[in-house]
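tool=predict chain=A
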Amino acid sequence: MATIIWENLDTELFRTYAFWSIILVLKMLALSQLTSLIRVRKGVVANREDAAMISPTAKPIFDDPQVERVRRAHRNDLENILPFFLVAFLYLLTRPDPTLAANLIRIAAISRIVHSIVYAVFVVPQPARLLSYAVTQLVMAYMAFKCICFYL
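tool=predict ok
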């Protein structure tokens, strides 16, 4: 079974998938670090033991708008990037056109990067976030549809 999977994978295409997947993982890690950085900079903590390190009278704060914005962007990544990893990998096993597949992977990854930037780093009014979100959704829907057709 394992040999069948690897025989269906275009090596160069898999390298593209692996590269952009790693970029997306690093981006998600960066959002975690950004959350921590904002918390430290603003003195916003979510746990009593952390608050006690700042001051004996400090209390946890759960509703800081800037912290929550970055956390929402990170949660959005978890809801969208993790499924992308699976759908894109299964799509690669359908022996897609390598140029199309590589471009779809790049487009989805770049749109997720743009989404995080306009959501959490440099807040840009809508429809910037909606468009970047929609691009990834369309790419994943296409890949999923192709998978359904292939595996049916």
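Residues 2-151 form a domain with the Four Helix Bundle (Hemerythrin (Met), subunit A) fold (CATH 1.20.120.550). The first helix runs from residue 2 to 8.
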